[in-house]
Design brief:
Length: about 425
C-alpha cells in the first residue's frame, strides 16, 4: 500500500472536492481488497461491477460485511504477510468469541492521524495536557488510539488508564490536566469523588471532557442528563466521540456539538435499513462504515450493529464532512414492549437525568414471541428521596413503557455494572 497521504483541511474547501477525493480513495481501496484480501477476492470475483469507475452511490451495489463474517473467516480478512502485523487487538464476537483485528505500522500511523484530527475538532492543541482514563492494555485499541492522537498532536499525555478515583484525583491536583478523555458515567463519578474530598472540579485546570463509549445527546442533538450533569459538575466543555475496533475511524464533535464529524479521507459512512438498503439523510438505521486506506485488515461496508442517523449538510464550523448523530442503541438489543419499540440506551438516557437515581441496571426477558419484559434495578441516591411511581410515570411519558422497578442497594448494582470482564459499564442484561 502507498504511504498514507494526508489531506489536512481539505474538507473545508468544498463538498465537491471532498467527494472526489473520497471516490478516488474508494476505488484504490476496493482494488486493494480484491488483490490482497482472500475474503474479498472470493466475495467480489463474481460481481459484474465496473470497480474502476465506481462512485459513492455505486458503493451500495457491493455486499455488506458483518461481524459474523469476520468471526467465521477471521484470518481470510488479513491482507498482508503476518510479519507486517505489529499490533493485534481483540473485539467481542457475536457468539462471545473475540475476533482479532490486525494492524500494520501503516495502520497505526493512520490511527494516530485519525485521532489527531478528532482532537483538533475539539479545540485541543499542543499546549494541552490530556489525562487518559481508558485502558491501553488488554488488547484494547481505543486507548492506544487516544494516546497516539495526543502525541501526534504534540500535546502531553498522562496514561493513568483504569486506575482508582483517588489516583486520578491526585494526578489532577499535581499534573493539572486541561483535558480528560473517558466514559461519561465514569467522569461523573470522578467529579463527585473530587467534591466529596474537598476538591471543586470547577476550580481545577480541566476545561474539556472528551467522552467515549456513551452518548451525550439525544436524537434531536439536545443534551442528555449525563451531559448536563458533567457540565454542572466540571463547568467544562463536553465533546462526544464514537468509533470501534473494526472501523478504526472516529466520529467526533466539533465546537457546535451537532453530530460527530468523520475524517472524510479515512472513511465513508452509510445508514441502512433491515434489508441493507441505503437510507436518506436523517433516517434512523444501522451505521455502515467503509474505512479507507487500511492495510492490515481492510473492510468494505462494515455493519457496526449501532443505530443512528446521518447529516451530510455543511456544518456551522465550515466543514463539509458528514456528521453522525448520537448512537441511539445496538440493533441486536432492540426491545419490543407491548407494541413499543425501543433500545436500552433510550432508558439509560432518561435515568441518567434523574438526580434521585444513584446507579442502575436492567434486565430483559421474553414475555412471549411478540413482546419483552423489562425490569429496572435502581440504587437510590437517598433511600427516602426515590419516588418509584414518578420514575415509572416519566418513562411512560417519554418512552411509552412502564417497566417493573426494583429498589436495591448500591453495592448490588456496582457488582453487576462494573466488572473486570468488561471495559465498559454493563447496564443491560439480555435474557431473552
Amino acid at each position: 500500500m502507498k504511504d498514507l497521504k494526508l489531506y489536512r483541511g481539505f474538507e473545508f474547501d468544498s463538498q465537491t472536492k471532498m467527494i472526489k477525493m473520497q471516490e478516488d480513495r474508494l476505488r484504490e481501496h476496493i482494488a486493494y481488497c480484491r488483490d490482497n484480501s482472500p475474503y474479498y477476492k472470493r466475495l467480489l470475483s463474481g460481481l459484474r461491477i465496473d470497480f474502476r469507475n465506481i462512485d459513492i452511490k455505486g458503493l451500495s451495489e457491493l455486499p455488506l460485511t458483518d461481524k459474523c463474517d469476520i468471526e467465521a473467516h477471521n484470518d481470510d480478512f488479513i491482507a498482508v504477510p503476518r510479519k507486517k502485523i505489529i499490533d493485534i487487538a481483540l473485539s467481542s464476537g457475536t457468539t462471545g468469541k473475540p475476533i482479532k483485528m490486525m494492524y500494520t505500522e501503516h495502520d497505526i500511523n493512520r490511527l494516530a492521524y485519525n485521532e489527531e484530527q478528532a482532537l483538533r475538532r475539539c479545540g485541543i492543541s499542543d499546549e494541552d495536557v490530556v489525562l487518559l482514563t481508558c485502558t491501553i492494555d488488554r488488547c484494547f485499541i481505543a486507548g492506544l488510539a487516544y494516546l497516539s492522537g495526543v502525541q501526534k498532536l504534540g500535546a502531553s499525555a498522562i496514561r493513568n488508564g483504569l486506575s482508582s478515583l483517588e489516583s486520578h484525583r491526585n494526578l489532577i491536583k499535581d499534573m493539572c490536566p486541561t483535558v480528560i478523555i473517558g466514559v461519561p458515567s465514569f467522569l461523573k463519578k470522578l467529579g463527585l469523588h473530587l467534591m466529596e474530598n474537598n476538591m471543586d472540579p470547577k476550580k481545577t485546570s480541566v476545561s474539556k471532557l472528551v467522552c467515549i463509549g456513551e452518548p451525550l445527546r439525544d436524537n434531536m442533538l439536545k443534551s442528555l442528563g449525563i451531559d448536563a450533569a458533567l457540565e454542572k459538575i466540571w463547568q467544562a466543555r463536553t465533546y462526544s466521540t464514537y468509533a470501534s475496533s473494526e472501523i478504526v475511524t472516529t466520529f467526533c464533535e466539533c465546537a457546535t456539538q451537532k453530530g460527530g464529524h468523520i475524517t472524510s479521507d479515512l472513511g465513508i459512512v452509510e445508514i441502512v435499513n433491515d434489508e441493507g438498503e441505503v437510507l436518506p439523510d436523517g433516517s434512523v438505521g444501522e451505521v455502515v462504515v467503509t474505512p479507507l486506506v487500511v492495510e492490515g485488515m481492510p473492510l468494505l461496508r462494515y455493519k457496526t450493529g449501532d443505530v443512528s442517523f446521518l447529516n451530510n449538510e455543511p456544518c456551522e464550523c465550515g466543514s463539509f464532512s458528514p456528521r453522525l448523530g448520537p448512537i441511539l442503541g445496538r440493533k441486536k438489543q432492540m426491545l419490543k414492549i407491548r407494541g413499543t419499540t425501543l433500545y436500552p440506551q433510550m432508558v439509560f438516557n432518561v435515568l441518567d437525568g434523574m438526580e434521585t437515581v444513584k446507579e442502575y441496571y436492567m434486565c430483559a426477558v421474553s414475555r412471549n414471541e411478540m413482546s419483552d419484559e423489562l425490569t429496572i434495578y435502581i440504587a437510590p441516591e437517598n433511600e427516602h428521596s426515590l419516588d418509584v411511581e414518578a420514575i415509572r410515570n416519566t418513562l411512560q411519558a417519554r418512552l411509552r413503557v412502564s417497566p417493573e422497578i426494583v429498589i436495591v442497594d448500591n453495592d448490588t448494582v456496582q457488582k453487576q455494572v462494573y466488572t473486570k470482564k468488561s471495559r465498559k459499564p454493563i447496564r443491560f442484561i439480555d435474557r431473552r
